[in-house]
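URGENT: need a sanity check before tomorrow's submission.

F., can you look over the Heme response regulator HssR record below? I want to be sure the sequence and structure line up before it goes out.
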Amino acid sequence: MFKILVTEDNKELNHAICAYLNQNGYQAMGCLNAMEAYDTMYGNLFDLIISDIMMPEVDGFEFAETVRGLNQEIPILFITARDDFASKQRGFRAGIDDYMVKPVDLDELLLRIGALLRRAKIASSKRLEIGNLILDAEEHTAYLKEEEIPLTVREFNLLYKLLAYPKKTFTRFQLMDEFWDSETSSSPRTVDVYMTKLRDKFSKCSEFEIVTVHGLGYKAVLK
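Structure tokens as predicted:
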């Protein structure tokens, strides 16, 4: 069972979130401030942290920075009344993974928690399994029904990125920035060539489809 730490100084909201998470298959523990959260973390291992920003003594930004300095992997989700871009920017720079503005829809919170935990599992395992397809990031290899599909490093990285975030659209420019050298002379249309190659190599794979999002880029859709 996944353990979640909820750091929120509003007692009623803290209790409501913990109760809802506990009712939906998680083990949630609530703290009313960052100092209490630090003490709780010393005696427990958590899979995800939910934190407010505006808390007494130590605010959410400092809390997130401290946690991220100790643990590079644990997902951190901010829930806050602050809807300004500067706060979001500062939060993500501090190391958080997601940001929700109050009032929080608890059903949406569940969806976001599930997505964050899936990504954390993918990142820690370095192995992605979808039906009969296995992508091993350590070996940079892809297996379909136990048969290896030859891929270049860039082809593998592009496919792994898409499948790690199914249904998420990545623009050509985003993919170029991540997987091509900054001084490359290639145009964004080079991404199209790679997607065509991947579609050809996995034409017999029924586990996913690479979909073109016209005017933007590409996404992977699981079947």
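My own read: The chain has a mean pLDDT of 91. The helical segments are 11-23, 34-43, 60-70, 85-94, 106-125, 153-164, 172-179, 190-201. If you see anything odd, call me.
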